[in-house]
Specification:
Strand content: 15-25%
Oligomer: single chain
Helix content: 40-55%
Strand order of the largest sheet: 2-1-3-4-5
Shape: globular
CATH class of one domain: Alpha Beta
Number of strands: 16
CATH architecture of one domain: Alpha-Beta Complex
Distance between the termini: 54 Å
Structural class: alpha/beta
Largest sheet: 5 strands, parallel
Length: 566
């Protein structure tokens, strides 16, 4: 008989632990592009698509105005490729602001300059939903401004910018079913509607359909790198987009994948987060993002390889700058008492820190101290920087409560950019810490280790691990699968791994099976683990392929000795 293959009971237990049961389990494991919502349900999207398509056909100058991070760059590339495909020769170009010289988002000077240069339509991606001043400049200059964004919008419709269209899944009054799209995903939705509009119906011709599938790859970069929840539409876009990255028809993207050492296999979500994304971000952090944008739009052949190599070198430089800032900020945070239970946030500024890199350093401090962190570069009379938060504490909401101390801010619950007058940093820090003390319970200051279910090693077959991989792509709100093996027996002594011996591997026996467990950065803590001891292991199951054979092993998350029985 036909039908879906049976799943291992372990898989169903894990799905149930995540609230996924019944018929929804099968569709979760095997999502479809039909799970994506109709783009026309998003406010102003049809109006935006019609104006862009008419402008492209009329030869009017269209400028795509994007942010300088992966989400903004990939979103810009999506609209660029779409318009050039639908109307070959369309007068379309891209503009990315300089992080240090212009700051985040749509700015009035840039809008005025683009208007002077003949722009008839400016379409933002990944920015603009609070840009009231720039929208007024555009209107006064006779430029139709189309805003597409996903960052936290104003609370009421009358506070939105006065633009030709404001496309945002969570704008006031929106009935769009999924509000957590990335900027690249919003751009993909607009591209999809442009495609159906150009083809005169709900379906597209085959070349346009092929392009949309390729654009899912670009959209997945923004979805994953921007750390939006990997559920709902974002997960569908990431699942299908990741499968398009290797062998992409875009030469620049292929060059980036090769320069990142990923040309030999499937590109996974963690590869985007730790290899592709940082390279694309590097030039925007240390200089100007125009080369990253060129790579994803027009670069081919030797030029694409040249840019990809340059981004790799910049990323190496960025990592060293980040290391220095992180170490310095950690020391200052401890000295200032911001890592104690009585002060539940970190807010620091220093003239030696690079404004383009402080955001990553924030993430490192959040990882170490588990509290919201804002780091800024002091430059003259102002401090510019970024913030990162923890689950359960809205960074944007806290900044809004402290707006009286700020020149400006923008972002969402987990990440934001800020500008503060240098003489107000101390007052802002105290106000922000007060908000954190009020909004964060003491138990939130320590990361909670959670797992899906207890399991036996005999359940961790290659087939079951393959089904578990289908729970991915993994990321925010859809973490990697974790199981606990109770009372596993250690066989022998741990073996050191890695060039510096900081990693280890061990063999354990559980439920009649011997299993290898890899423990990254655990060597020092496992050094005295005796042969034959019983312990509880929290692991992430993975498939190890070696010499043509596959086996399941675990990546150690935590280890605990069971209490002695009397």
């Amino acid at each position: 008989m036909g039908g879906a293959p049976e799943r291992a009971p372990l898989v169903d237990r894990i799905l149930e632990s995540r609230g996924i049961t019944g018929p929804g389990a099968a569709s979760f494991l095997d999502p479809s592009l039909k799970d994506l919502h109709d783009p026309s349900r998003m406010p102003d999207l049809d109006r935006a698509a019609a104006r862009l398509f008419d402008a492209a056909r009329a030869g009017e100058r269209i400028v795509i105005y994007g942010d300088y991070d992966v989400d903004g760059i990939s979103a810009s590339a999506i609209l660029f490729h779409t318009l050039r495909h639908l109307v070959p020769g369309a007068n379309v170009s891209c503009y990315i602001p300089h992080r240090l010289d212009e700051g985040y988002g749509l700015n009035e000077d840039a809008v005025a300059s683009l208007a002077d240069e003949g722009a008839a339509v400016i379409v933002t991606v990944d920015c603009g939903v609070t840009a009231v001043g720039p929208a007024a400049v555009a209107k006064a200059r006779g430029v139709d401004l189309i805003i597409t964004d996903h960052h936290t919008p104003p609370a009421t419709e009358d506070l939105l910018p006065d633009a030709y269209a404001v496309v945002h899944p969570r704008r006031p009054g929106s009935l769009y079913p999924f509000g957590d799209l990335s900027g690249s995903a919003v751009a993909f939705k607009l591209a999809w509607r442009l495609a159906t509009l150009a083809c005169g119906g709900t379906r597209t011709d085959e070349p346009t359909r092929a392009l949309l599938l390729e654009l899912l790859g670009l959209a997945s970069l923004g979805v994953i790198a921007d750390v939006v929840p990997l559920v709902g539409e974002n997960r569908v876009i990431a699942r299908f987009g990741l499968s398009r990255l290797r062998g992409s028809r875009f030469p620049g993207l292929s060059a980036l994948i090769e320069a990142s050492g990923l040309s030999g296999g499937r590109v996974e979500a963690e590869h985007v987060g730790y290899r592709l994304g940082p390279r694309l971000n590097a030039c925007g952090r240390l200089g100007h993002a125009r080369e990253a944008l060129e790579l994803l739009t027009t670069a081919t052949g030797a030029r694409a390889a040249e840019i990809a190599a340059a981004l790799t070198a910049l990323n190496d430089e960025r990592r060293e700058v980040e290391r220095r800032i992180t170490e310095h900020a950690e020391r200052l945070a401890v000295e200032a008492g911001m890592t104690t239970a009585g002060r539940r946030a970190i807010v620091l500024a220093h003239e030696d820190w690079h404004q383009g890199v402080v955001g990553i350093a924030c993430s490192r401090l959040v990882g170490r101290f588990h509290r919201p962190t804002i780091l800024m570069q002091r430059h003259g009379d102002e401090c510019h920087g970024s913030g990162r938060s923890i689950d359960g504490f809205s960074l944007h909401g806290a900044l809004d409560a402290c707006r009286g101390h700020l020149i400006g801010f923008g972002g969402h619950d987990m990440a934001a950019g800020v500008r503060v007058r240098a003489d107000r940093v101390r007052d802002f820090a105290e106000a922000f810490i007060e908000e954190a003390n009020r909004g964060i319970a003491p138990e939130q200051l320590a990361p909670a280790l959670t797992f899906d279910t207890e399991a036996g090693a005999d359940e961790l077959t290659v087939a079951a691990a393959g089904d578990l991989a289908r729970v991915g792509p993994f990321g925010r709100d859809n973490p990697k699968v974790r199981v606990v093996l109770r009372g596993a027996v250690v066989i022998g002594r741990p073996k050191l791994m890695g060039a510096t011996g900081e990693h280890a591997s061990l063999q354990v026996r559980h439920s009649g099976r011997v299993m290898r467990v890899v423990a990254f950065s655990w060597a020092a803590r496992l050094a005295e683990l005796p042969d034959g001891v019983r312990c509880d292991l929290m692991i992430e199951p993975t498939i190890n392929r070696w010499n043509g054979t596959a086996s399941v092993e675990g990546e150690l998350v935590d280890l605990a000795m069971p209490p002695a029985r009397e």
